[in-house]
Amino acid sequence: MAPKTRLDPIVKLRGHEEEKAQIVLASAGREVLTARQNLADAEVRLLKQGRVGELARDYEVADAARSRAAHDVRQAADQVTRAKFREEQARTAYISAHRKVEVVRRAADRKREDLVTEQNKAENKEIDTLATLMYSYKRPPVGRF
Q1: CA-CA distances (angstroms) from residue 48 to 28, 54, 66, 80, 134?
Q2: I need a labelling partner for 97 at 20 to 30 A (CA). Which of 21, 31, 53, 90 fits?
Q3: Sign (positive or negative) of CA dihedral 134, 135, 140, 142
Q4: In the chain, domain spans
């Protein structure tokens, strides 16, 4: 089992921040898709607008409908632009959160490796001490006969 470090709670908090940023990024992506679909629908409505009849009022109605459809296309295009901007902001926030969590995660991993190395050194030192004691215990005493 890996030893715990003081950085583990920070890694956990930064991980939650990264998850939240990822959720916001996904939401912004869906918003862009919706805005693009709305733009495509508005463009289709604009193309379907045609002139009906020869009377002046028919022309005015058709012109008003075309004008309204063109306005809807402009609004939908603006909506796409705003959605793309929000998506880019969300992407930037996610990248920043991801980098922060990776920095802390790497630091925690390095600290964990250092702790394991220290534990191994202490264990090896204890084993060497025990081996030396056992060797000296088995050896006949050195001295004069």
Answers
A1: 30, 18, 9, 22, 96
A2: 31
A3: negative
A4: 8-138
**Token couple for 46:** 């604009």
**pTM for this model (two decimals):** 0.71
Provide mean pLDDT across the span 98-127.
94
Structure tokens at 65: 């409908």
* pLDDT tens for each residue of 68-108: 889 999 999 999 999 999 999 999 999 999 999 999 999 99
Q: Position 75: which residue type?
A: Q
Contact 10, 111 (CB under 8 A): no
Closest CA to 110 of 12, 6, 15: 6
Q: pLDDT per residue over 15-43, tens digit each?
A: 999 999 999 999 999 999 999 999 999 98
**Strand locations in the chain (E):** none
Q: Does domain 8-138 bear CATH number 1.10.357?
A: no
Q: SS3 of 13, please?
A: helix
Nearest to 39 by CA among 7, 82, 8: 82
